Structures are given as C-alpha cells and as structure tokens.
C-alpha cells in the first residue's frame, strides 16, 4: 500500500527566505520520520513546485506526480518583493481581497461566497513569516531544467481562468516532462479541487488508478 501525500499551498516557517530545495527536503524528512518509502505526490501551487523538485531530485521517493495549477518559473521578481513588503508593512489582511480575486474565478466568487470566505480565513490565519518565506521561494525558483529529469508518470492540471499560474505554464510543464498527461478545467481558476471538486477527484482517481502498485490496487 502506498499513501498519497498532499502538500498545502504554503506553510509556517522560521524567519527568512525559503527555497524549493529546502521545502522539498522538508517533505523527505517527514517521509523519513513517518517511515514512508515512497508516495504518489499531489501538490497545488507552491506544492506543485515542490513536487517538480522532488520528481527530479528524489525520484526514488515518488511513485507519481500530480502538479496542480503550478509553474516551473514564475517571474517577475518585483511582484514577489512588492507582495512581501506589503505583508511586512500591513499584515496578511492587506492582501485578502487581492488574493481571493486572483485565485478564484469571478463566477465562483458569486456562486459560492462561503467557500471563498473560508479560504480567506485560512489566509488570514497563515503566519506572515511563513507566507513571506514561501513568496521568496517562488521568487527565486527556476525549475525549468528539472522537468526533463523527471522519470515518473505525471499529471498536470490547469484552470482555464487561472491568473496566478496561467494554463500556458501548465502546458510547458507537461511538454517537458517525458511521461506526462495534461488536463485543463474550464470555469476554474487556481483551486480546481474547490471550484471543480467532482471533476478534480474523478480526474485524480483515474490517473492514480493507472499507476502500478497504487493504494487503489489493494
């Protein structure tokens, strides 16, 4: 039996910039602590970036990769520096509306305000130190050369209306990983697992069901 490991979009960490490599090593440390040999890894946004790093640098610990609404390279640097300074000076509340408008499609914001507000509460409760560290990790990231080094079966999911990591970023990842499927969800922005939960779950289950030795075979 092989567990599925899902990494949240951002975590709380000590002060200072973080790096995808150090975040990836944290995942490996968790797997070692839990005595888990290998996983089917599903990561959203920054979690997907960490998944790319794991797939290229620790392929023996990864049975498959699902990379959702993510990117291998996400400039400009100035945007991330501005976001970091904004949070330092004014706190997490200063980016609440901006981030929700960026991460959700306008139609979903209108139709399910409760779900959007729930994500907003999670954002507000996030450590500003951890958030800024993760922004620095994205700012300094360039995983483009890693993509061709990923040997494991992969699935890339993108949202047509995603402004944070537009579909062309997902297409690039899927084109570069040797054994990779690509799926685009309509009427969906940065959170396909929320905006299109049923379709997302079916897509992920179908992909995992094709992998040899998955927990679905048990």
Give the total of beta strands: 5
Helix-strand pattern, N to C? Answer: EHEHEHHHHHEHEHH
CATH architecture assignment name of the largest domain? 3-Layer(aba) Sandwich
Can you tell me the CATH topology of the largest domain?
Answer: Rossmann fold
Characterize this entry briefly:
The chain has helices at 20-33, 46-57, 77-90, 96-103, 106-111, 113-125, 128-139, 167-176, 192-195, 197-209; strands spanning 4-7, 39-44, 62-68, 154-159, 180-185. It is of the alpha/beta class and 218 residues long.
Structural summary, described in words:
The model is unreliable at 7-11 (pLDDT under 50). α1 links the parallel β1 and β2 (39-44). The protein has 218 residues and is of the alpha/beta class. It has a five-stranded parallel β-sheet with strand order 1-2-3-4-5, with helices on both faces. α1 packs across α2 and α3 runs antiparallel to α7. The chain contains ten helices and five strands, in the order βαβαβαααααβαβαα. 39% of the residues are buried. It has two domains: 4-72 and 148-217, Rossmann fold (3-Layer(aba) Sandwich); 77-131, no CATH class. 49% of the residues lie in helices and 13% in strands. It has helices spanning 20-33, 46-57, 77-90, 96-103, 106-111, 113-125, 128-139, 167-176, 192-195, 197-209, and strands at 4-7, 39-44, 62-68, 154-159, 180-185. It is globular, with a radius of gyration of 17 Å.
Secondary-structure blueprint:
Elements: E1 4-7, H1 20-33, E2 39-44, H2 46-57, E3 62-68, H3 77-90, H4 96-103, H5 106-111, H6 113-125, H7 128-139, E4 154-159, H8 167-176, E5 180-185, H9 192-195, H10 197-209
Parallel strand pairs: 1-2, 2-3, 3-4, 4-5
């Amino acid at each position: 039996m092989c567990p599925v490991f899902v990494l949240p979009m951002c975590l709380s960490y000590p002060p200072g910039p973080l790096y995808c490599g150090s975040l990836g090593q944290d995942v490996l440390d968790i797997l070692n602590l839990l005595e888990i040999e290998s996983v089917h890894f599903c990561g959203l946004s920054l979690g997907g970036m960490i998944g790319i790093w794991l797939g290229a640098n620790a392929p023996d610990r990864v049975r498959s990769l699902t990379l959702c609404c993510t990117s291998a390279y996400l400039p400009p640097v100035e945007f991330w520096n501005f976001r970091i300074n904004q949070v330092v000076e004014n706190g997490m509340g200063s980016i609440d509306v901006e981030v929700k408008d960026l991460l959700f499609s306008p139609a979903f914001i209108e139709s399910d305000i409760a779900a959007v507000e729930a994500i907003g509460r999670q954002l507000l409760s996030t450590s500003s130190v951890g958030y800024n560290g993760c922004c620095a990790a994205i700012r300094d990231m360039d995983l483009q050369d890693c993509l061709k080094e990923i040997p494991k079966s992969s699935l890339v999911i993108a949202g047509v209306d995603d402004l944070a990591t537009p579909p062309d970023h997902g297409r690039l990842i899927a084109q570069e990983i040797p054994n990779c499927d690509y799926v685009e969800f309509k009427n969906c922005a940065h959170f396909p697992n929320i905006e299109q939960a049923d379709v997302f779950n079916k897509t992920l289950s179908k992909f995992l069901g094709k992998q040899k030795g998955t927990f679905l075979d048990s």
